[in-house]
């Protein structure tokens, strides 16, 4: 009922973690791999190990979360070894997330993956909002175009891009025009809504240490923005480019809405952080319930079929 085909691999369901959540260590990744999740993605890897920003750098709120992790990770080799190892023991579809601290590092990372034995999917994170002094690449249209043009002169493996949220129709138009030029496997919308501010009223203080308390928002706060970005890119991108919907998934209804907007896969971040990997069995059950009530027997029955008001 929930089965989904991605790159000719049949997944039991369209759900997976959002990069950064529950995917930093081999233990966490194994737990994801052995959970109900249809697939998993690794924590965004940089070339070298990064400690990330000073703590506290993550905070759950009633309506979601705020984080300014600063790309802490064990370095590309740690994650590349992990996915190659699992690939050798038969893993069919894996997602490896990467980003560089510079243009050269971005190109270098993808060159290394291209030359490696890894045959899975690479998620190119162009949208981390939390490295002080580093703007989000995908808010710089020219840079994104230049980077993708160079990458696709040598990269032949499946590549997706993780985008920040856009808030202007002209930006959807401009970004889609750029993305449609490249043989991308998918676009993942959205990364956290950058640089929000959450206040502890009693202490009259911010709740995370980096950047004076500014951090990326996740959870309920961002679902309308996430759905709009999924819908906008689905309407604009070549059908050959799949869409992964990320942002604001609390229950099965939210998963249904992402798919109704056009998502092929749906990622869960904040709610996975709060609930643990059991969230995937809860969400699949809830989604099946909703589909039954509505008389749908497969995701294709309603994917991308959001109605407008004529
Ligand atoms: O791309 C990212 N998005 C986030 O919200 N946080 C992490 C991070 O800060 O590492 N990276």
Automatic annotation (TrEMBL):
Binds 1 FMN per subunit. PROSITE patterns: DHODEHASE_1 (PS00911), DHODEHASE_2 (PS00912). Residues 1-291 form the Dihydroorotate dehydrogenase catalytic domain. Its EC number is 1.3.-.-. Keywords: Cytoplasm, Flavoprotein, FMN, Oxidoreductase, Pyrimidine biosynthesis. FMN binds at residues 19, 43-44, 125, 162, 190, 219, 247-248, 269-270. GO terms for cellular component: cytoplasm. InterPro entries: Aldolase_TIM (IPR013785), DHO_dehydrogenase (IPR050074), DHOD_1A (IPR033886), Dihydro_DH_chainA_dom2 (IPR023359), Dihydroorotate_DH_1 (IPR024920), Dihydroorotate_DH_1_2 (IPR012135), Dihydroorotate_DH_cat (IPR005720), Dihydroorotate_DH_CS (IPR001295). The active site is at 128 (nucleophile). It is an enzyme of class 1 (oxidoreductase). Pfam families: DHO_dh. GO terms for biological process: 'de novo' pyrimidine nucleobase biosynthetic process; 'de novo' UMP biosynthetic process. One of its GO terms (molecular function) is dihydroorotate dehydrogenase (fumarate) activity. It catalyses: (S)-dihydroorotate + fumarate = orotate + succinate; (S)-dihydroorotate + NAD(+) = orotate + NADH + H(+); (S)-dihydroorotate + A = orotate + AH2. Its cofactor is FMN. It is found in: Cytoplasm. Substrate binds at residues 43, 67-71, 125, 191-192. PANTHER family: DIHYDROOROTATE DEHYDROGENASE (FUMARATE), DIHYDROOROTATE DEHYDROGENASE (QUINONE), MITOCHONDRIAL-RELATED. Homodimer. Heterotetramer of 2 PyrK and 2 PyrD type B subunits. Catalyzes the conversion of dihydroorotate to orotate with NAD(+) as electron acceptor. HAMAP family: DHO_dh_type1 (MF_00224). Belongs to the dihydroorotate dehydrogenase family. Type 1 subfamily. This is Dihydroorotate dehydrogenase. The lineage of its organism: Bacteria, Bacillati, Bacillota, Bacilli, Bacillales.
